[in-house]
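Module 6 notes. Inverse folding takes a fixed backbone as the condition and produces residue identities as the prediction. Think of it as a translation problem where the source language is geometry and the target language is the twenty amino acids. Below is one complete input and output pair. Work through it position by position during the lab.
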């Protein structure tokens, strides 16, 4: 998978954590790296992945359509295949980057956040494959939880997220993925994984963006969970 890297800029006693970034529609592996790379703890390795599909107006994406209106092929196949690619990348990351296999964190924005939801809730190859996640302005597809759908065949056990820190945010004025989806994400996830350490932040003044309020929440979360001194 094409990716861009911000190496750890400070040393730590043990292998560093890995923060894996998943961008939104029309962006590339450089976009989130320039924003989140500045928020991430200096002793973590930050890797930003490029979506596998060309977006219709330039850049790249993870699945066809939008989080608010996915195409059928996305729900039937592409969300799953993109999530599988992320899971495979996680498996190979310790050998490639020298990171701690027990300290892998996902952060996604927009379509990338939708993929974070799908990856967190998919079956993992081993317990503890992912240590936590941040989903910003995306959508938890309800098809993951609907029996008989292609996405539901991927669903793991809620117990794999027991105690894991999960941060979600949404702008109340989001015109792209309206805030109702963010509220539904929180409702569905809390009901499915009550044992997760879940936090939902809603910025009343933000649109489809990583606002100052959200950035502050992300920074605090990363310092608390990802920094080696945490």
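Target side of the pair, the amino acids:
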């Amino acid at each position: 998978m094409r990716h861009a890297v911000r190496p750890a800029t400070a040393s730590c006693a043990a292998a560093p954590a890995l923060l894996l970034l998943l961008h939104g529609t029309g962006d590339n592996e450089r976009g989130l790296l320039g924003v989140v790379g500045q928020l991430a703890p200096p002793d973590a390795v930050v890797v930003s992945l490029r979506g596998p599909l060309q977006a219709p107006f330039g850049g790249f994406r993870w699945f066809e359509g939008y989080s608010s209106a996915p195409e059928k092929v996305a729900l039937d196949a592409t969300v799953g295949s993109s999530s599988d690619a992320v899971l495979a990348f996680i498996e190979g990351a310790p050998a490639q980057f020298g990171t701690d296999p027990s300290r892998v964190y996902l952060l996604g924005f927009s379509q990338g956040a939708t993929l974070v939801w799908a990856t967190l809730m998919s079956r993992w190859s081993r317990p503890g494959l992912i240590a936590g996640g941040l989903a910003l302005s995306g959508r938890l597809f309800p098809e993951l939880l609907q029996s008989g759908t292609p996405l539901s065949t991927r669903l793991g056990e809620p117990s794999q997220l027991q105690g894991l820190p999960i941060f979600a945010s949404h702008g109340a004025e989001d015109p792209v993925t309206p805030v109702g989806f963010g509220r539904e994400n929180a409702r569905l996830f809390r009901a499915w994984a009550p044992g997760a350490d879940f936090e939902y932040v809603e910025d009343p003044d933000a649109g489809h963006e990583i606002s100052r309020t959200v950035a502050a929440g992300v920074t605090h979360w990363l310092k608390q969970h990802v920094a080696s001194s945490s």
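Reference fact for the lab report: The two ends are 30 Å apart (CA to CA).
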